[in-house]
Amino acid sequence: MTRRAGRGLLLAWALVAGAAVAHARPPEALACAVMNAPHGLDARVADVIVSQDPERGRPVLDELRAVVDACGRDQFLDDKQRDAYFDYTLGRMGRDVLDARLGEQGIAAGLIDDALDIGPGKANNPAEKVTQGDLNRVSAALRDAGHDPAKVTPDGWRLVTAWISATANMFEALRRMD
Fold first, then answer.
1. Long-range contacts of 124-133 (CB under 8 A, 24+ apart)
2. Fewest CB within 10 angstroms: 90, 131, 170, 172, which?
3. Are 4 and 55 part of one and the same domain?
4. CB–CB of 90/45 below 8 Å?
């Protein structure tokens, strides 16, 4: 290979690598819908996730969709990316509120993340549904941390389930965005 051909190949590789890096969404783009949401939408989104009743929560989800679509248009997202961005924002807004609610129940969200290998920098396996096995792992983690799982209220377990769902949706949506 000539020196000139080698430089051309190196330049082509650099352009491809640069395009891949440029394609990733910057944090401020991901935060657009969260930052532009009306006050209180995050708490209502968390309520929908906890209720596990998207039909009853349709007005909230429609309001979230309008905010997400506006940001998606500004970021030139296609329909598929916008759907993923909706799921990401739903999960992220839910996690932001659920973290505090779990704390009020004496449950650290990080404990759930560690027990199930979910959250930032973790495996984040997609979850269609929270299983009894997931809840058993959280129970064991609570026990290991010195908390009696039997003392977790039904509301506490609903929050745990909601946290798991929100986290799985958020990280799966990130994978689908780009």
1. 124/167, 124/168, 124/171, 124/172, 125/168, 126/168, 126/172, 127/164, 127/165, 127/168, 127/172, 130/161, 130/164, 130/165
2. 131
3. no
4. yes
The answer to whether residues 20 and 48 belong to one domain is no
> Which pTM value belongs to this model?
0.81
How confident is the model over 33-58, as pLDDT tens digits?
999 999 999 999 999 999 999 899 99
Number of domains making up the chain: 2
- Give 112-163 pLDDT, tens digit per residue: 999 999 877 787 776 667 889 999 999 999 999 999 999 999 999 999 999 9
Among 2, 57, 14, 62, smallest CA distance to 38 is for 62
**One domain for residues 99 and 50:** yes
Give me the domain span that covers residue 2: 1-26
